[in-house]
Design a protein that fits this description.
five-stranded antiparallel β-sheet, alpha+beta, six-stranded antiparallel beta barrel, Elongation Factor Tu (Ef-tu), domain 3, 2 domains, 7 helices
């Protein structure tokens, strides 16, 4: 039976049952070699000493001034660490990593994006579908952890989502199995388009590269606390990030905004938020089917980041009022 595909039913399925989206535009890097964990430990914000095979974690690459280079999801295997990147950024990040390898480092960083397919799975029914499809349970997996499984005839990595990911589960496989997996997923559940995935991301309060995340933002400003370890040793940007943590120096924060019903959603990305001479900006604005109103992710100075505060968004020579709210918008 062909699943229903209306936008309303697809969105509802992603919340309550099962829906899926093709994530293959995202990057997939492989880091191998004896020094892979030490290498990632010295370059990024999370603690790779605790990353055992089958586990995963979010981590941030930062500049020496604490600004962001990338948010990555790391998954550890017996002989490699795999890194999921934002769409279109794998090649540049692989080059960045390779430029930082010391002469005595025993490791290799490869971009496997073209050889890999990735699918996002959403909804309360996904775990049961995975169990039925593979003959194995994944209920015991912790956030970001993964396990091998066979779906149809395809060997796949099945990874549980975490607080900094929009999907509830992700399936990663060799590109040669892409058509087979797409067919199985299509038979099982409706497919989400890119705009619907973005709505779910914003409702969950998760920032994305090119919208909220950039080299002008620090990970603490963006609410990426789960990607930062408090007790690891030195890493690039550690001094600035530690100062923000220890001395409460985060001067702006990512918040949610509730917008007027007639807000021009499509044109608000990057719009300035004026707050008494100091500003912020709007990241992504969407229509929330659950809240039945426009919402947005935005950065504002910390003294106006309390829920209930009204801020002015400058757009096309006019001002739009936005009400600050906590994140996520939708649990």
């Amino acid at each position: 039976m062909t699943p229903p595909t209306s936008p309303e039913i697809t969105y509802t399925a992603a919340r309550t049952a099962m829906a899926w989206a093709d994530l293959s535009g995202h990057g997939w890097l492989r880091v191998i070699g004896r020094d892979r964990l030490d290498f990632l430990q010295r370059l990024s914000t999370n603690d790779f000493r605790k990353l055992v095979p089958g586990a995963g974690l979010p981590t941030v690459l930062a500049t020496a001034t604490g600004r962001m280079i990338a948010l990555l999801i790391a998954c550890a295997a017996e002989d490699a660490v795999y890194l999921r990147t934002a769409p279109g950024r794998a090649g540049a990040l692989a080059a960045h990593f390779n430029s930082l390898i010391f002469w005595n480092d025993e490791l290799e960083v490869s971009d496997l994006s073209a050889e890999t397919v990735q699918f996002e799975l959403f909804g309360l029914g996904v775990a049961k579908w995975l169990a039925d499809a593979t003959g194995a349970s994944f209920d015991d997996l912790q956030p970001y952890a993964w396990r091998d499984g066979i779906i149809g005839g395809a060997a796949a990595m099945i990874q549980r989502g975490g607080s900094l990911e929009a999907p509830d589960w992700t399936v990663i496989a060799a590109a040669k199995h892409g058509d087979e997996l797409r067919s199985m997923l299509t038979a099982a559940a409706p497919v989400l388009n890119e705009g619907q995935v973005e709505v779910i991301r914003v409702e969950k309060g998760i920032p994305a590269w090119g919208s909220e995340l950039s080299d002008q933002v620090t990970p603490l400003e963006a609410g990426l606390r789960d990607a930062i370890s408090d007790n690891k040793g030195c890493y690039t940007g550690q001094e600035v990030i530690a100062r923000q943590l220890n001395y409460d120096k985060v001067t702006r924060r990512m918040v949610g905004l509730l917008l007027p019903a007639d807000a021009p959603i499509a044109g608000l990305k990057g719009a300035t938020i004026a707050t008494g001479g100091r500003g912020g900006f709007v990241g992504t604005a969407v229509w929330s089917p659950t809240l039945e109103r426009p919402i947005a992710l935005a950065f504002v100075p910390r003294d106006v980041a309390e829920p209930g505060t009204i801020v002015a968004i400058k757009y096309a020579g006019a001002e739009i009022a936005g009400e600050v709210t906590g994140l996520p918008f939708v649990e």
